[in-house]
Amino acid sequence: MPDKKSGKPTAPFEVPAVDRSATTRRPNAPRMTGASVHVSLAGEIGLRIVRGDYPPGTILPNEAKWSEVFDVSRSAVREAIKMLMAKGLLSSRPKIGSWVEPKERWNLLDRDVLGWYAASPDRESFLRAVQELRHMIEPEATALAAERRTEEQMNAISQALHDMDQATSLQQRTESDARFHIAILRATGNDLLVPLGALIESALNHLFAHVTREEDNLRYALKLHENIEKSIRLQRPNMARNAVRKVLANTDQIIARWSR
């Protein structure tokens, strides 16, 4: 991080001590091979950063160390670091190396970062953060969808609901559930919500997987989604807004029970 007066690189923040386990390869980590080695390596390092192995300000091991730990080329390490820099997790300077940026600079809506959060020990906080985001966005987005949806968009929403009902596995039901909510965001006709829907899809998948396992009465959850679909189909914004709030309230209760 450059000094404001001299412009020369200086050590970022303080350099916290790093747990030795954070610089060792996990026993069950798969061997990184093929053209996407740097992607796998970025995932491994990114997960360690998000779960707190490397606090903000920590200077990471150098290329040689990562290359040794994971038995990969230095070029793969460089590409992995570039990926993490693009996601806002890292910065790098010559003669200093790469360090972890403050959390507020991370791209928390990046698919990979969301996935690392979902896999971190602080899963409950992740679920609650996703719920807060949904409470802020989905009621009004669903009301907009009820007003603006096209027949094609309505068909996509209805098909996702049908697939939820016909799902024969947890994975199928979770994927259909996420697709249902993403289809509603697309039906708003708001160009800013459409990419947001794609970004939060990963978070919704992780949330719904947890909720589905905890929900004893799947038919009740499906009924709540049927009410949303019906209100959008009939183009009743207020009914749509209230219907999605019931789904969110139901999810809140499930998370609360899980966290006790």
UniProtKB/TrEMBL annotation:
Matches recorded under PROSITE patterns: HTH_GNTR
Any Pfam family: FCD
Keywords: DNA-binding, Transcription, Transcription regulation
Region (Disordered): 1-33
Domain HTH gntR-type span(s) in chain numbering: 35-103
PANTHER family tied to this protein: GNTR FAMILY REGULATORY PROTEIN, TRANSCRIPTIONAL REGULATOR, GNTR FAMILY
Protein's name according to its UniProt entry: FadR/GntR family transcriptional regulator
